[in-house]
Specification:
By secondary structure, this protein is mostly helical. It has one domain. It contains 6 helices and no strands. The radius of gyration is 19 Å and the shape is elongated. The model has no long low-confidence stretch (mean pLDDT 90).
C-alpha cells in the first residue's frame, strides 16, 4: 500500500482515542469469572519481558539510526511496535480475567490497613508516581508512535525525525517503567 500521499490523521486519532478508552472500560467492568484455560499468573512476568524487549529494541533503533543503519533501524522499530501490540493485547486480557491487585496489600483484601501502609513507608508514593506517569504516557504515546511510523513509511524523514525526538524518550520511559512497576507489585500478586 502506498502511504506517501495518504492522510491518515483521522484513523490515527480514532485509534489513539479508542485504545486508552477500551483499556479504561475493561478495567471497570466486573470480573467475568471466566477461566483462560491456562494459569494467567504468568502474564505479568510475560508483560515485563515484553517491556524489557521493547526497551532493548528502542535502544537498538536509536543506535542504528545514529550509525546510519537505516534498514536495521526500521526493523528494530517494527519489532518494538509488534512487541508493544502483543503486550497491549495480553495486558488487557490479563486485567480482564485476573482479580485486582493492590500495591502493598499483603492479605489481598483490597484495603491497605495501617500496618500494611507502615510496611510500605515512602515506597508507596514512589510506586504510585511511577505507575501514574507510566499510565499517562502509555496513553499519550499511541499517536506519537503511529505518526512516527506513518512519517517513516511516507519517507518524510524530516517530520519523522522531528516527532521521533519526542516519541522515543516517552516510549522508552513507558517500556522501562512497565518493568519497574512489575518488579514493585510482583510480591502482591495472588
Amino acid at each position: 500500500m502506498d502511504l506517501k500521499n495518504k492522510n491518515l490523521n483521522v484513523p490515527i486519532a480514532i485509534v489513539s482515542i479508542a485504545i486508552p478508552l477500551l483499556v479504561a472500560i475493561l478495567f471497570y467492568l466486573p470480573h467475568p469469572g471466566i477461566e483462560a484455560g491456562f494459569d494467567i499468573r504468568i502474564l505479568p512476568l510475560f508483560h515485563a519481558i515484553l517491556n524489557s524487549a521493547t526497551a532493548v529494541m528502542l535502544v537498538a533503533s536509536l543506535w542504528f539510526v545514529k550509525n546510519k543503519y537505516i534498514k536495521a533501524h526500521k526493523v528494530a522499530n517494527l519489532i518494538a511496535v509488534g512487541l508493544s501490540t502483543i503486550f497491549l493485547l495480553s495486558y488487557v486480557t490479563y486485567h480482564f480475567l485476573a482479580p485486582k491487585t493492590m500495591y502493598g496489600d499483603l492479605n489481598h483484601d483490597l484495603v491497605l490497613d495501617a500496618s500494611e501502609k507502615a510496611v510500605l513507608g515512602a515506597t508507596r508514593y514512589v510506586y504510585y508516581f511511577i505507575l501514574l506517569t507510566h499510565i499517562v504516557l502509555a496513553a499519550v504515546i499511541v499517536p506519537f508512535v503511529l505518526f512516527s511510523l506513518l512519517r517513516a513509511f511516507q519517507n518524510d524523514v524530516e517530520r519523522h525525525r522531528k516527532i521521533s525526538k519526542i516519541t522515543w524518550p516517552m516510549w522508552f520511559y513507558v517500556a522501562v517503567t512497565g518493568v519497574v512497576v512489575y518488579i514493585m507489585i510482583n510480591p502482591y500478586y495472588q
